[in-house]
Amino acid sequence: MDNIKITLETLYDILRNEKKREDLQKLENTFFIDVVSYLREKQALLKEKENDDNLFAAGEKDKIEYELRSIKRIIKEIYEKREKKMIEIALNKSKTGSDIIDTSSMLREEKEFYNNLLKILDGSRREVLLRLYRGELPGFIPKTIIQEVNKNEILAEKTDVNEEMTKIEFIHPTPSFVWKDMKVYGPYEKGDKIDIFPEVAELLVRKKRAEKI
Question: Which of 5, 148, 158, 186 has the fewest Cβ atoms within 10 angstroms?
Fold first, then answer.
């Protein structure tokens, strides 16, 4: 699919591949841009035909309207197929904490969706499952999860006023984890740099997940 030029046929091919294969299929990084360009091209043609009164133009207008409906239907199906697969990947990651989860086939916007979903799943697991393990009732999940997601977004910029933090750089992808303060940290990608509690830094260095900077 190098230098892909989006057409109705290529969209059909993409949808067919997503349907018949279990794994998330690799798309060009410009997929969304290509789709938008293709839609705009069709919409521009439709506008031209709407301003043309001859009989031939009316037939062309009907054809373009049909193509636009087909394009939108296929795009919706592609989105929903990929969405379902990403939810399953996030569930698997949250359950297992596996380091071998492959996200390379996700587009940039899809990876952002996946990471946010993973934070919510991990937060829910902490607020329900881990509390039950300790013999506690689950917390108020929606509020605490939202707070945790926001907290994770700025974790690298925060420091504890009572403890000097240690700066580290991750040398391997690291799944999210719950520390003894019962907060969710991560997940982190190779190259991420954060300030974190010294004891956590020492543990990550010992496990060869990160290096001190």
Answer: 5
pLDDT score for 78: 97
Packed helices 31-50 and 55-96: angle between N→C axes, nearest 10 degrees? 160
Count CB atoms within 10 A of the CB of residue 190.
Answer: 12
In 3-state terms, what secondary structure has residue 26?
A: coil
**Residue 73 sits in the same domain as residue 115:** no
Range of the domain at 172: 108-212
- Whole-angstrom Cα distance, residue 114 to residue 135? 31
d(CA 142, CA 131): 15
Residue 94: CB atoms within 10 A of its CB come to 22
Kindly tell me if the per-residue pLDDT of 58 is higher than 80.
Answer: no
Whether residue 87 is contained in a domain is answered as yes
pLDDT tens by residue, 22-41:
999 999 989 999 999 999 99
Give the count of beta carbons closer than 10 Å to the beta carbon of residue 206. 9
Please report, for the domain that includes residue 167, its CATH number: 3.40.5.50
- Tell me the β-bridge partners of 185: 177
Quote the tokens at residue 88.
């399953």
**Residue whose C-alpha is closest to residue 47's, from 35, 32, 64, 31:** 64
The token pair at 193 is 């740099």
DSSP-derived letter for residue 188 is B
Q: What is the pTM of this model?
A: 0.61
| Domain assignment of residue 28, yes or no | yes
